[in-house]
Amino acid sequence: MIRLFAGVAAPSVAAGATAYCVALALALRCTPLRLAKLCVPAATALLSTALLPQICRNFAARSSGGWSGITASLGIVGNSLRLYTTLRLAGGDRLLLAQFGLGVSLNAILLTQVLVWGV
User: Fold this and answer.
1) DSSP assignment, residue 66?
2) What are the helix (H) ranges across 1-119?
3) What would the pLDDT profile of 7-50 be if each residue is shown by its tens digit?
4) For a 10 Å CB count at each end of the chain, is N or C smaller?
């Protein structure tokens, strides 16, 4: 983000960020719940597969790709907590459980790569 906005005047960045937040708030307020629920599977697929390119690159290079063990560990802990809260508060929603379970697994693969191949 810093590189993206380097050289851009701070007021224009602030105005753009404010406009984005206002548009997002309006979109979220006006979106029917039925439509929002249709977006959940797409979000699950995107979030669950976001780490796959990094994992594949790491395997191809036999390297951790500069990935931090701390980042992977925090991903495991965060997704594990989400699994727990999904079981306790969301009635064990299968889609959410799949998403967070896959998140734990993918972060565990990244952590293993860091431990085996180093930083």
Assistant:
1) T
2) 2-5, 10-30, 33-49, 52-61, 69-89, 94-117
3) 666 777 778 888 888 888 888 788 787 777 787 788 878 877 88
4) N
Q: Which two tokens mark 45?
A: 């697929």
8 to each of 3, 50, 55, how far by Cα in Å?
A: 10, 29, 34
- How far apart CA 94 and CA 117 sit, in angstroms, is 34
DSSP state of 58: H
Distances (CA, A) of 5 to 15, 21, 35, 37, 112: 13, 17, 33, 34, 35
Structural domain including 3 reads: 1-30
Q: Check residue 91 and report its DSSP letter.
A: -
Please give the single-letter amino acid code of residue 53. Answer: P
Q: Are residues 54 and 22 part of one domain?
A: no
Predicted structure pTM score:
0.70
Instruction: With beta carbons less than 8 A apart as the criterion, state whether 42 and 77 touch.
Output: no
Q: Which two tokens stand for residue 16?
A: 């753009």
